[in-house]
Amino acid sequence: MHLIRPAQPSDAAAILDLIHELAIFEREPDGVKNTEADLVAHLFGADPKVHAHVVEEHGTVLGFALWYLTYSTWEGTHGIHLEDLYVRESARGAGHGKALLATLAQIAVERGYRRVEWSVLDWNEPAIGFYDSLGAGSMEGWTVRRLEGAALAALGNRK
Asked: Are strands 51-57 and 3-6 parallel, antiparallel or unpaired?
């Protein structure tokens, strides 16, 4: 039996390990710059803007959902953006991912939020199939844009 619960500071090392596993899965093994100290500061500091839930079985963290609030000007309320959902490969198929998403959906419903949204890599067919099975639709006509690195610095330093 698994337990879904809000992450605690003592989970930071396990969450970081899962983030590294996710990066390998997403073909970016050297992409993670996050640290255990960063996670503790951002998730459990004085005014956290990021939240996480973990799935635990027999005292071992098997997966996590890391999320933050968004705001929709059209809906006039907050939503949840799921930054990462990851379950260890050895623990998949047991309902852990669905339980994590159901927890976020429950939070959204209880708080009157109208959305839980996330991105998925277009080649990740198992995840897309899983999300489709839950009724999560794709945002047709929308693409994700990102400003980073030199382009971010150039625009951010523009006066």
From this structure: antiparallel
Read off the pTM.
0.93
Residue pLDDT, tens place only, 81-125: 999 999 999 999 999 999 999 999 999 999 999 999 999 999 999
Instruction: Using the structure block, give the residue that is written with the tokens 């890391």.
Output: 66
Nearest to 21 by CA among 80, 96, 84: 84
51-57 and 116-117: which strand pairing?
unpaired
- Is 131 a catalytic site residue? yes
The two tokens of residue 97 are 């991912």
Please name the helix (run of DSSP H) or strand (run of DSSP E) that holds residue 86, with its range, or none: strand 77-87
C-alpha dist (Å) from residue 83 to 9, 50, 120, 157: 19, 9, 10, 27
From the candidates 68, 71, 86, 131, which is the catalytic residue? 131
The domain that holds 11 is classified in CATH as: 3.40.630.30
Range of the domain at 144: 3-156
Tokens of 70: 């968004």
- Number of domains forming the structure of the chain: 1
Contact 81, 65 (CB under 8 A): no
